Amino acid sequence: TPGSPAQPLAGQTWALIFSKLSTRTRVSFEVGIRELGGFAMFLSSNDIQLGRGELIKDTARVLGRVVHGAIIRTYGQSDVEEFAELSGIPTINALTDDEHPCQILADLQTVREKLGGWDGKKIAFIGDGFSNMTRSWLWAAKRLGFELSVASPEACQPPAEFLEKLDAPNVSVTESPAEAVEGADVINTDVWLSMGQEDQKEKEEEFAGFQVNADLLKSAADGHIVLHCLPAYRGKEISEQVLELHADTIFQEAENRLHAQKAVMMALASC
Ligand code: CP
Ligand code: NVA
């Protein structure tokens, strides 16, 4: 029924404005919007005037008058923030160079489903310590208080100023993947080169020894789970064997994008 609690987006159009590729985020938002009664309009930045230089502030003021919500995947975090401010409509960050908050919500939901919650749990992140995924995990640790141990090569660690601003005693950073994984309940990784960094082959070389594989996981806690936001590069950040052993968790994590994002949109629709 239009307008009923199960269809809070009935009669609404939500735009997905994407400047980077996506499988999970695009599909889960498009399906979620439809399941909530709304219409999803996918706009690749290459297909709209944004792709030939129209400003975010102008795009925001146009779309804010004709659609009811926006989901943005782009490079600069400030672009999402500027769009949110100038459009005046609910605006969801669907990944920037700095953050991937929707993914972390799905990851936390998966931790709760698999382990009963995160209180008292040790979560390890192995990989690029200043990627969008790591930064969103760092903010989540600050907010929720679980132990987070980030293992990254020295050149890819979160900068000291960021950690100072974060001011989270429950967060530690190390160059040793073994130290981070020791006793960990959740082991999480992500690609070594994020979208937009594909030509930085020299960065990739920093990650020798940072693969999540069976050997590394020997010292993890009994009953540990492995998370990967996907897409995965088997043989790089994660071994084929570990990915397949933990496929049930990893694909549940992917499915949870749909459920977590529907909850976010329902909350925004009722504001
Ligand atoms: N994890 C994730 O955001 O995947 P996509 O890039 O396919 O959307
Ligand atoms: N850190 C990755 C996440 C992909 C979902 C990237 O930005 O490419």
List keywords for this structure.
271 residues; alpha/beta; 5-stranded parallel sheet; 10 helices; 9 strands; 40% helix; 15% strand; globular; binds phosphoric acid mono(formamide)ester
Describe the protein.
By secondary structure, this protein is of the alpha/beta class. It has helices at residues 24-35, 56-66, 77-87, 101-115, 132-144, 160-166, 177-181, 201-205, 240-245, 247-269, and strands spanning 13-18, 39-44, 69-73, 91-93, 122-126, 147-151, 171-174, 186-189, 225-228. It has a five-stranded parallel beta sheet with strand order 7-6-5-8-9. Strand 8, helix 8 and strand 9 form a beta-alpha-beta unit. Helix 2 packs across helix 3 and helix 4 (101-115) packs across helix 10 (247-269). The longest helix is centred in the C-terminal third of the chain and has 23 residues, at 247-269. The mean pLDDT is 96. It binds phosphoric acid mono(formamide)ester and norvaline (NVA). The site of norvaline has 10 residues, from helix 5. Norvaline (NVA) binds at residues 95, 100, 131-133, 190-191, 194-195, 229.
